[in-house]
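Possible regression after last week's pipeline update?

I re-ran a chain I had predicted before the update to compare outputs. Posting the input and the new output here so someone can diff against the archived version. Not blocking, just want to make sure nothing changed silently.
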Amino acid sequence: MKAYDIVIAGGGPAGLAAAAAAKRAGNDSILILERDGELGGILNQCIHNGFGLHTFKEELTGPEYAYRFICQVKELGIDYKLNTMIMDISPDKTVTAMNREDGMFQIQAKAVILAMGCRERPRGALNIPGYRPAGIFSAGTAQRLVNIEGYMPGREVVILGSGDIGLIMARRMTLEGAKVKVVAELMPYSGGLKRNIVQCLDDYGIPLKLSHTVVDIEGKERVSAVTIAEVGPDRKPIPGTEERYTCDTLLLSCGLIPENELSRAAGVRMDPVTSGPEVNESLETSIPGIFACGNVLHVHDLVDYVSEEAGRAGENAVKYINNGCVDQRRSDVVKLAVGKGVRYTVPSTIDAERMDDLLTVRFRVGDVYKNAYVSVWFDDERVLHSKKRILAPGEMEQIILKKKQLLEHPGLQKITVGIEME
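New output (post-update):
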């Protein structure tokens, strides 16, 4: 059995950034395992710009952003295997994988970093009535067909869901000559970034219908039309509000979910809200020495934040190894709790003694709030009260906690993050 200090599951933006950070932190025994034929992950098909403003202080396309990190990995001499599927990760950090060259093989790691990314929510979970004809694609599949393989999925398009990929594909299909007739969103707010609504829909005159969903799909061989209807507060269609659109393509952009089959099989404790692992301030999961970062942990809206988070995971994996792979976690940690309006926080626990001087806590809200306050309580004492002009589920929020501040509150049991209206 081969042995590496750190095995990274995934060679996308999170895996690349974690590997580069671990190498710079002084570890030379690192292996990236990537199931695709090249490094870079989903960024290779994201040919639009808007990446890298935080990390590189310039605007890049997805492939350009990925290439910067691929170059770092190659220049640092980090090992990687492509076309390699991880079959299993055991709690003792034995990684079982397979590829054509090596067949089935095992690697004993001292630390594992989970960086498998996320996948689109499948159509089967959406309960759309009607036939199952050709012409129905997830937005990410359509993006790959157009941007990498050079195929046009269709000419008359309806999009269900206003996630960022769906919004971007509305623009992409329009630029390629298709007619995007409507984007329907079940919720009363968009699931995507505000800038994508403006740049991808408003700029091209594509209507966005909130509180609408698809109630019928017509066509046996190929989609010929879809019917959408308004939904009430109970998310059920309102009779009499149906609108029929002729089309040959239906794109589904109904959210992303972390790719966590390997995490669950390893016995990692999962967060029911994010569908990703529960982690502490070091991005360490419930299993000592297994770390998680990027979209496998919780779905991000900016890849810059993925890279930043992954860099911390890489550095913390090296610290874990340098400390003799001993579980140094204590039981008297501070728990992060969600207050009104907040769906989850990452991390979910903090050890004030072990945390960095500054710790970024990321979270998402459950509704749209205007002129609201993000508040933080240390037990019952409010220590932060920051006004925000607008808070929306499609935009990830963050607060910065200071180590000094936590240490000044000995006996602190709970930190609560919530939304207040005043």
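Follow-up from reviewer: compared with the archived run. The chain has a mean pLDDT of 94. Marking as no regression found.
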